Amino acid sequence: MIPLRDNIPTGRFPVVTLILIAINVFVFLFLQGPSLTLGGDDQVETKPVVEYGVVPYRVTHPGEDCELAYPDDASKQELVCEGTKEYTTAKQDNVPVESLDEPPAWVTLFTSMFMHGGWFHIAFNMLFLWIFGNNIEEAMGRIRYLAFYLLGGLAASGLQILANTSSTVPAIGASGAIAAVLGAYALLYPRARVLSLIFLGLIFLVEVPALILLGIWFLLQFLPAVGQFAFTDGDGGGVAYFAHVGGFIFGLAAVKLFVRHRSESYDKLLRSE
Fold first, then answer.
1. Structural domain contains residue 206
2. Rounded CA gap, 261 and 11, in Å?
3. 228 exposed, middle or buried (CB, 10 Å; 0-12, 13-18, 19+)?
4. Digitized pLDDT (tens) for each residue of the chain, 273 residues in all
5. Pairwise CA distance, residues 96 & 32, whole Å
6. Edge-to-edge strand order for the sheet containing 2-6?
7. Do the beta carbons of residue 115 and residue 52 sit within 8 Å?
8. CA gap 243, 155 in Å, rounded
9. CA quadruple 254, 26, 220, 205: dihedral sign
10. 80 within some domain
């Protein structure tokens, strides 16, 4: 299902939501740089992504730097970090390495929220943020909303890191922070209706209750996360499912601490039903 719009109008222009979208788009278009290929699975990244994405191993092993190794040829790179078997092997085999301009690991917890892995990744993230973020911004106020968004992103990264503390795969994307927004929306506006495209062989345009739409979304994140943990030690598929789950749960748990008032438009809709 692809959401297109909800039926809760806002009384204030969503300035923070728009700024967040603009920053994400700017970083994706102008700061992520030319592509390179990491590892044998042809996972395409860029050097800034490797430097500014969240690498769980760097967070759980402070002070351990990472380098790009070229074990076979210049077309394939491998991220190796001090203290790992791969790093020791690369040094023993005199594998060519390239130093990285890495910020402190805690900085990447924030920078990773504004980077994306491709056009579909950023397009869907920004669509969800625009549709659901404006109502949450209005309910919380701009400063509280920004704090909630960033804390949601940190919570999302935290669960992803806990799922595999030794992973050297960079994690990027606003998905975790946006998942927190979705969790808040599901709790605040469960009976809002979201106009959505549904693909079931044919394309249908249907209004779906927000709780059902977001419940299905969460289930589609939770089940693969369990699968990753059970079969691939928290990594796999290039999607940080645990970050999505962590962000959504944070949104459910913390929304009441940040909300000032629920939308009057929503209350009017409930009274009219």
1. yes
2. 13
3. buried
4. 899 999 999 989 999 999 999 999 999 998 886 555 555 444 546 788 899 999 999 999 998 999 988 877 655 678 999 999 999 998 888 888 888 999 999 999 999 999 998 889 999 999 999 999 999 999 999 999 999 999 999 999 999 999 999 999 899 999 999 999 999 999 999 999 999 999 888 888 999 999 999 999 999 999 998 887 666 555 554 678 999 999 999 999 999 999 999 888 888 888 887
5. 24
6. 2-6, 193-200, 202-209
7. yes
8. 8
9. positive
10. no
Q: CA 31, CA 147: separation in Å to the nearest integer?
A: 24
d(CA 181, CA 193) in angstroms, rounded, equals: 16
Considering the domain boundaries, does residue 76 fall inside one? no
Q: What is the CATH number of the domain that holds 248?
A: 1.20.1540
Strands (E) in the chain, as ranges, are 2-6, 35-38, 43-46, 66-69, 78-81, 97-99, 193-200, 202-209
Asked if residue 69 is part of any domain, the answer here is: no
Q: Is 47 exposed, middle or buried (0-12, 13-18, 19+ CB in 10 A)?
A: middle
Please identify which residue in the block is written with the tokens 């994690």.
171
The two tokens of residue 152 are 């949601």
3-state secondary structure at position 258: helix
The range of the structural domain enclosing residue 130 comes to 2-32+108-272
Q: pTM to 2 decimals?
A: 0.91
CA distance 53 to 31: 13
What is the number of domains present in the chain?
Answer: 1
C-alpha distances (whole Å) from 190 to each of 130, 186, 261 are 18, 5, 15
